[in-house]
């Protein structure tokens, strides 16, 4: 028996080492990936202008000029931003220095700032306060009304990260490559050598979108030149050798296709109000809930249009949709510590099996079958021991996503508060941050780290 125990612990140690090495490799190779990325998009641009754009007729050039300006501007601008704007962290780095980015984000005079170019926030709306939750539930720049989802305070208590011992607000995850917690983490991307999170996800998706547009333009308008590279008799006035253009053209086709698929997949998740990590959780929870005849709803899913508006912060209270056309830093709609939550459905859905899986997502569970008893729902993964204090008397009745069945809502209960993936990376318990009635200033101090 001791031999087996020793063997199994040995295997676990080995696995941990492999995992640690993989994380280290991802981090160490990051700058190489970024260099490759810059080289490819720079070469692609130069070669396109040299080979294809030079052959345009004056009329064609006039017709194409908006795209010929906007695509390179956004391609290089968004890539620069996604690699330079930090994803957002709930706490300063445990060791070493945080990169100084004061010139980039809080400074409205920065050349990258949307404000500097006249893009002001259209309306200063604050979400309804759910009361007694310090400064966290009124996210600056929320721009939401009551009907649009409720800003649920992260509360005075947040989870503690087991790995870095820092605060871990909702939707925050610990990145093992960056070795710190990241606000609304999506994934760690080696191509940008950073995590995609709250502050840079907009640039990430927009970069992919503009890269898709760029590759499509190269593949369509460069098709004849591509055919010419195989002909010995064709005129070739460009400085780029034929082989160079052939290679770039094929790369554009392959990368363009892959990036377009990836971008559409991301937009699909955004439209359902979930990150890549949450998408895994939600699919798992939906399956689990379905087995028990329950419906699992994503509390951050406010409807497709609203989710997309909030993601890009172009909701009626946010910034102009024209900001999508320029590589500008636009602050996210949320401060990363609290997010607007959807209202609970008033009635159990009639046809639960017709719902799409991502709609059956994290957070709220609705009884799908039969009239709700309100009590004793027998949820396999809701132990009823809610770690948060929800009795804060917020006056929003059963609409704030924290309604228990006992509230008379008929069969809706709060879901898995701990989060499933957090079992591995969290499990650090809870920590108190701030006290009730604390001024916004001190509360802000916790989420001003980028
Ligand atoms: Zn952490
Ligand atoms: Zn990371």
UniProtKB/TrEMBL annotation:
Question: Which InterPro entries does the UniProt record give?
Answer: Palmitoyltrfase_DHHC, PFA4/ZDH16/20/ERF2-like
Localization, UniProt: Membrane
Please list every transmembrane segment annotated in the UniProt record, as residue ranges: 21-49, 55-76, 204-223, 243-265
Tell me the protein's name: Palmitoyltransferase
Alphabetical keyword list: Acyltransferase, Lipoprotein, Membrane, Palmitate, Transferase, Transmembrane, Transmembrane helix
Residue ranges of the Palmitoyltransferase DHHC domain?
Answer: 160-280
Q: Which PANTHER family match?
A: PALMITOYLTRANSFERASE ZDHHC16
User: Do the record's keywords include Transmembrane helix?
Assistant: yes
Record region (Disordered): 383-402, 408-450
Which coarse location class describes where this protein primarily resides?
A: membrane
Traced from the root, the source organism's taxonomic lineage reads: Eukaryota, Fungi, Dikarya, Basidiomycota, Agaricomycotina
The record's annotation in Pfam families points to: DHHC
**Is this entry keyworded Protein biosynthesis?**
no
EC number from the UniProt entry? 2.3.1.225
Q: Which reaction does it catalyse?
A: L-cysteinyl-[protein] + hexadecanoyl-CoA = S-hexadecanoyl-L-cysteinyl-[protein] + CoA
Report biased composition (Acidic residues) as residue ranges. 415-426
What family is this protein classified in? Belongs to the DHHC palmitoyltransferase family.
* Domain observations: The DHHC domain is required for palmitoyltransferase activity.
**Membrane topology according to the record:** Multi-pass membrane protein
| GO function term, MF aspect, one | protein-cysteine S-palmitoyltransferase activity
* One GO CC term, this protein: membrane
């Amino acid at each position: 028996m001791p031999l087996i125990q020793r063997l199994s612990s040995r295997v676990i140690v080995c696995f941990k080492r492999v995992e640690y090495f993989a994380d280290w490799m991802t981090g160490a190779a990051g700058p190489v990936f970024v260099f490759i990325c810059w080289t490819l998009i720079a070469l692609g641009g130069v070669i396109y202008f040299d080979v294809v754009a030079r052959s345009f007729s004056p009329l064609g050039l006039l017709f194409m000029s908006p795209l010929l300006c906007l695509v390179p501007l956004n391609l290089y601008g968004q890539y620069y931003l996604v690699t330079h704007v930090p994803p957002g962290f709930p706490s300063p780095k445990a060791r070493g220095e945080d990169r100084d980015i004061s010139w980039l984000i809080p400074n409205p005079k920065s050349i990258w700032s949307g404000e500097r170019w006249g893009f002001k926030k259209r309306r200063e709306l604050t979400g309804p306060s759910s009361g007694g939750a310090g400064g966290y539930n009124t996210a600056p720049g929320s721009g939401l009304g009551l009907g649009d989802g409720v800003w649920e305070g992260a509360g005075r208590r947040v989870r503690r990260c087991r790995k870095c011992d820092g605060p871990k607000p909702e939707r925050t995850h610990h990145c093992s490559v960056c070795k710190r917690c990241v606000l609304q983490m999506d994934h760690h991307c080696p191509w940008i050598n950073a995590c995609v999170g709250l502050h840079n996800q907009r640039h990430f998706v927009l970069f992919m979108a503009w890269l898709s547009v760029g590759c499509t333009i190269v593949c369509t308008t460069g098709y004849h030149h591509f055919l010419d590279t195989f002909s010995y008799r064709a005129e070739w006035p460009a400085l780029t050798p034929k082989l160079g253009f052939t290679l770039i053209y094929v790369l554009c086709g392959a990368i363009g296709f892959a990036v377009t698929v990836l971008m559409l997949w991301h937009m699909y998740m955004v439209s359902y109000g979930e990150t890549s990590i949450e998408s895994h959780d939600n699919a798992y929870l939906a399956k689990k809930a379905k087995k028990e005849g329950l419906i699992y709803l994503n509390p951050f899913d406010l409807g497709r249009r609203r989710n997309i508006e909030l993601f890009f912060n172009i909701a009626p209270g946010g910034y102009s949709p024209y900001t999508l056309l320029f590589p500008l830093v636009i602050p996210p709609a949320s401060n990363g510590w609290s997010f607007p939550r959807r209202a609970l459905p008033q009635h159990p859905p009639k046809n639960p099996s017709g719902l799409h899986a991502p709609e059956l997502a994290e957070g709220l569970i609705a009884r799908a079958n039969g009239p709700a008893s309100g009590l004793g729902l027998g949820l396999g993964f809701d132990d009823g021991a809610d770690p948060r204090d929800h009795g804060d008397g917020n006056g929003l009745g059963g609409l704030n996503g924290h309604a228990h069945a006992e509230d008379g809502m008929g069969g809706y209960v709060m879901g898995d508060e701990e989060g499933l993936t957090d079992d591995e990376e969290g499990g650090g318990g809870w920590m108190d941050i701030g006290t009730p009635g604390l001024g916004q200033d001190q509360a802000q101090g916790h989420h001003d780290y980028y």
